[in-house]
Structure formats: C-alpha cells, structure tokens
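Anyone have tokens for Deoxyuridine 5'-triphosphate nucleotidohydrolase? Sequence:
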Amino acid sequence: MKIKIINRSKHALPKYQTALSAGMDLYANLDAPVTLKPLERKLIATGLLMELPQGYEAQVRPRSGLAIKNGITVLNTPGTIDADYRGEIGVILVNLSAESFTVNDGDRIAQMVIAKHETAIWDEVDKLSETDRGEGGFGSTSK
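Reply: yep, here.
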C-alpha cells in the first residue's frame, strides 16, 4: 500500500525494523533535548504529515524497549491518526518511572501500525441476543 507522506524532519521516513514487523518506528524531531520528569507528559514532534486512504487509520503505540528499560510509554495508547487528519504527527510520551528521562533528536520514540477499519452503522434495537456470559464483565470469566 502506498501512503502519501511529507517529511519535514531531519530523519529518515518511518520503517519496519524486520521483514515481519507490524509497526514502523517513529523518530523524535527536536531542536533541543526534552526531559520528562517522573509522571510528566509531553507532546513530541515527528515532523511527519501523511494522507491515509479512506478506511485506514494509523495507530501510535509504545516501544517495548523504552517501556521496560525506562518506564516511557505513549499516554493515549494506541493513539489513532484518522484518514482525514493532515497535521503533524505528534506522540504523547509519559514517564512512569521514578527518574527523569531525556528524549533526544532522532530517538525512536514510538511505533506506528497502519490498520484497516470498518465504519459502524448503528442498528438500534430493544433486545440483544443472549450468550453464556451475559452481562458479566471485569473478571467475570476467571476464577
């Protein structure tokens, strides 16, 4: 699938790190390092703008290495980029560790997955079909 993209950053386009990767790494595009104090969140620029085809979204997700090694994650994960959005892609990072963390220009900060989606049309009814689970939720299926 071809996707139109504008790269205003100093870095390469997002790419898959292996042949079977689902996500492409996104890079920080910064004029100066950004430090996240414990429990602090900041919007990190990527310098990328894109035009997704109708019926697709881009999902911004955390990088597992940053999460396990540094406690850094994407706050609204997965963040959705809609097909009609034309602004710069930004990543909301949050520091869940007890130590400050510095994001430098060119750091891989998140991954982006391109996903197909459906558009729902509501069918308002008075009754839903019955299942074994019924209304059980939040831990109701485990002991």
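The chain has one helix and eleven strands.
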